[in-house]
Amino acid sequence: MALSSRLFSKSKLIYGSQMLLQKDYAFPVRHYAKASDPPALKGDQMLKNIFVEVKKKFETAIGILKNEKITIDPEDPAAVAHYAKVMKTVREKASLLSESQDIRATIEMETQDIPDARTYLLTLKEIRIKRGLTDDLGAEAQMIDALDKVEKELKKPLLRNDKKGMDLLLAEFDKINKKLGFRREDLPKYEDELEIKLAKAQLEELKKDALEAMETQKKREEFKDEPESVDVKTLDIRNFL
Length: 241
Known about the structure:
Blueprint: H1 2-20, H2 43-65, H3 77-93, H4 99-111, H5 117-130, H6 139-154, H7 163-180, H8 187-218
Helix pairs in contact: 1-4, 1-5, 1-7, 1-8, 2-3, 3-8, 4-5, 5-6, 6-7
């Protein structure tokens, strides 16, 4: 969790800096698409559409997983990388969000109507806490310190539609980025590292579940003649889908 927390801190600074600008003078495109909103649906039809969409995504995911051999070995970098690649394909084909995309979408959704920078930063902290992540880099404290400095210079609370003030704050954020040793253009690399970390964690969970299932099975009378133990790396999860 420590690595994913550090990557979240990096992502939060970058995503946060980008979306901090989206109040009033940099709205997301969909704010201008009101005329294209779909007609309102009745409750039953809405539920039916949701069910069909979820079913479609599920079938797409299962179809991909049935064609891929996944080795349950979280200690093997090659197995972890392959699993991460398969899950990326599942997300792309089934139109699912990656962890980094979900972070970005969550930040955008929960902050789009916030008028001031301080409430915005406090909301980022709430998002982190809800996800069970720690701020190992101390990014939050540094961002608040930067805001305090800017507001002291402005002699007023900083609003997100104050372009001059926001430019000052983002300049301070750039200093924090430099101090922490990462660059905005390296964001894809941080996202890939996060996906690898999550893939390893998921394989560890699969391994744990498989071992527990085998232990339970050994205690059942009908399986008493089965081999004492099976290496989970030899299991093919396609047989269980």
